[in-house]
Amino acid sequence: MASDAVPQVRIIHETDPRKYYPAIFRLAAEGRITIVGANRYSVVKDFVRTSVRTKDSLITRLRRTASDLALRLKLPFLRDEVIVIGFAPWDWRILLYGALPRKNRVVYHTSRIRWERHTTPHQYGPLTGLFQRLWIRFLRHANVQIVAVLDEVRDDIVTRFGVDARVIPHAVPDEFFEARKPSAPSTLPLRIIYVGELSEKKGVRDLLEAAPTWTSTHVTVVGDGPLRPLCEAAATQGAITLLDPIWERSRLAQVMAEHDLLVLLSKREGVWEELFGIVLTEAMAAGLGVIATDHVGPRSILHKSNLGNLFTEGDSAGVAELITRLARDPAELERFKSQHYAMADDYRINHIAAEWQSVMLGETVLQEPRSD
Predict the structure, then answer these.
(1) 240 and 329: one domain?
(2) 319 Cα distance to chain centroid
């Protein structure tokens, strides 16, 4: 690819590329790159998942599946592209995509904080070591650049594999900033929202149990997942409203902006913990204050604030005390929310897009860890 040519970019991700890479799509909309493909790498799993979660029409899912399958047939013939790919360590699909750096420049995007051999999602018994070696060779290839969403992710990769990574956090679409409501006197009840998967690891059970004990509050739960029946039962008690998943980002932004706080009480499950927390940055941009478990992602986003809004798992008393204090003091609530909004500027799409553009152009950037 000529140095002055518009980069030809292909995105390959487990789920919806538009959700995770709005900054890259912004570059395409402005003509700074050309997106030649946006595919899911998990063909069958994605077909089943979208039939349940997004309820897309059968025609839409069949077309997407056909496109994803066609990509696999085209893999040996791709050349001179910038291919952004994001999937978990030791995934067997390295057999399909591991050869892409030979004729293309590959940007491997990851939020994986720990790369120990036996603590990653994909394990293949005695064959795990083989896949690990293939992966390490892939990561060290001269045509592969690693982009990490957190400093901690980069640090682990540098330490383990001796290859550097560039840190670019997830971007927040403009719709969330635009949805922010003008400052106005707060009224009770305090409006709290949770958005995401309705599961144990996201702390939804803890949220449902704690919400009735919070004074002068109302909780909105948005999402779907295995704990949906529990949420439906809780919604009949009056203190909780349950909404279906909202896939349209502008609509989600509007719903968020009608609330005061977002609560994310994630719980470690096996080797999983909250590795970023996109919903936190979206809520901050929409003008909300946030409360979260002290996992690596929320900690990276919020630790500079010193607002006392990060809690250890199970600290229901601490969460309740903060919520009660904010509900009783409208001035403190407004200060709490405004400080979060100021932090959200780091995730504006224009800023993140500029960083991604330099990656697409193959620019080498010396990058210091983000300041505390």
Answers:
(1) yes
(2) 23
